[in-house]
Design the sequence.
């Protein structure tokens, strides 16, 4: 069977046995794929060295080989903090107001992608399948082709793909998109992002789009397709039924003393709509004074990308909003917003989700959003909570039975909170059942199998397909 070479910005090294539950769903799925396909996971170690050497640190853990390189401070500044997180991330989340166009960032991005290509090239054998992840590494495939790699290569983008009108604001956008056409498969989270990409190919490059999503470019066929990512359903639901989850659930329940709880869990990122969420909750408290002392919002928001100014600003903004709302509605024994800037082990998180009557997932723009799926998977089916979900999350296309909202409309979200808190058990169960089936049936294993199957492409024999 072909080996799988997974390439991403960072590598998530498997934890020692017994601690496996601490990993995210994506890491778990890729690790299991790598074990099945005897693969290698290549990426940046997260470490800094004074001068780039290209030294590969190879390790073997839990049946998976990882290969990592260290980067220099200038690489991290220009490629990671710069082009990836100050240019592409905001642009891909429709925030051209936050997008920085700095030529040094672009050069750093190309330099680091070339360093990735140089370092991973010797690891690739002729029958390997190469699977590249995310916006950090869009041109990597074309750099590997230039080094003679003829293997089948795929790219999966975890973020949205922006509308053409926004993308053309990026200097050298033509070069960036053209470089992506070196892959055999280009995967997106949803049809919406896929269609934006195809629109660009059609309008800006004049490429005809085949009925089946194939695009022809320079005599090669490229499959562009949506592969909606899911959670590791089995691992997550096992975790949700563990003693650790139950203990976290019971402690949290006891601490709210009979009040109803809403929960948000998000990396501290402006794309997640946290400011609007807090404002909506404040509006709910203002409009429903009889409930103001009976409802708590627990917001877990581990900081991320703290070296980038826009992330420092969102953090300050949220501290101000929390202080304002808590100042107005708290009393000596109660605060309405519990705003927590740290992460928790996954099993505890599952217990927290189950303890909350309402899951608030209100990003302004999100490739998919796994928290929405985790909230559903963690519920007690006999007495499930209600999911309020932004219409701008990729997951909204699948999770039709959630209460969908426009997160920009403070009034609409506030009214929906009221509706969710009052929803009768029968309706909660009916909605939950449909949502649960969808989260279970399109989990991360399904996602990975679909992608790898597409990556095998025409070359796959019935036997290799079977072995997936
Ligand atoms: C990108 C795309 C896409 C959060 N707090 C804690 C914690 N988390 C975990 C959640 C969830 C994950 O982080 C966040 O995933 P999301 O999908 O919600 O969002 P991004 O981080 O922005 O991910 C997104 C995803 O890639 C996958 O393709 O869905 O659209 O932006 O799993 O549970 N985990 C733990 N403690 C925490 O406190 N253990």
Sequence:
């Amino acid at each position: 069977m072909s080996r799988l070479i997974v390439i991403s910005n960072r590598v998530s090294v498997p934890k020692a046995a017994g601690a496996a539950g601490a990993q995210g769903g994506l890491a778990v799925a890729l690790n299991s794929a790598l074990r099945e396909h005897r693969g290698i996971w290549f990426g940046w170690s997260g470490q800094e060295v004074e001068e780039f050497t290209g030294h590969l640190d190879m390790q073997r853990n839990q049946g998976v080989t990882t290969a990592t390189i260290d980067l220099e401070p200038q690489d991290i500044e220009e490629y990671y903090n710069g082009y990836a997180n100050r240019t592409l991330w905001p642009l891909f989340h429709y925030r051209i107001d936050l997008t920085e166009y700095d030529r040094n960032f672009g050069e750093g991005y190309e330099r680091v992608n070339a360093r990735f290509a140089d370092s991973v090239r010797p690891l690739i054998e002729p029958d390997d399948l190469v699977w590249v992840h995310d916006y950090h590494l869009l041109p990597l495939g074309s750099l590997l082709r230039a080094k003679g790699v003829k293997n089948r290569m795929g790219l999966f983008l975890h973020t949205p793909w922006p509308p053409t009108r926004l993308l053309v604001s990026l200097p050298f956008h033509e070069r960036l998109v053209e470089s992506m056409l070196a892959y055999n498969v280009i995967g997106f989270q949803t049809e919406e992002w896929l269609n934006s990409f195809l629109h660009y190919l059609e309008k800006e490059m004049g490429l005809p789009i085949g009925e089946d999503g194939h695009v022809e470019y320079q005599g090669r066929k490229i499959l562009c397709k949506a592969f909606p990512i899911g959670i590791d359903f089995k691992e997550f639901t096992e975790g949700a039924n563990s003693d650790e989850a139950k203990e976290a659930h019971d402690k949290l329940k006891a601490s709210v003393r009979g009040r109803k709880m809403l929960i948000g869990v998000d990396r501290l990122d402006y794309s997640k709509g946290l400011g609007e969420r807090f404002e909506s909750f404040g509006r709910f408290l203002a409009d429903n004074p009889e409930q103001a002392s009976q409802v708590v919002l627990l917001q877990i928001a581990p900081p991320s990308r703290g070296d980038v100014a826009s992330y420092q600003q969102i953090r300050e903004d949220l501290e101000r909003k929390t202080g304002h709302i808590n100042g107005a509605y708290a009393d000596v024994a109660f605060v309405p917003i519990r705003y927590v800037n740290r992460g928790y082990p996954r099993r505890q998180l599952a217990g927290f989700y189950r303890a909350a009557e309402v899951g608030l997932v209100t990003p302004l723009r999100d490739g998919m959003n796994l928290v929405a799926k985790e909230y559903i998977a963690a519920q007690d089916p006999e007495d499930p909570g209600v999911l309020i979900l932004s219409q701008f999350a990729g997951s909204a296309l699948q999770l039709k039975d959630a209460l969908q909202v426009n997160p920009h409309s403070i009034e609409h979200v506030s009214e929906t909170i009221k509706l969710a808190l009052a929803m009768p058990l029968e309706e909660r169960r009916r909605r939950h059942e449909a949502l649960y089936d969808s989260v279970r049936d399109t989990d991360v294993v399904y996602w990975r199998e679909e992608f790898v199957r597409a990556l095998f492409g025409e070359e796959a024999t019935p036997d290799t397909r079977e072995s997936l």
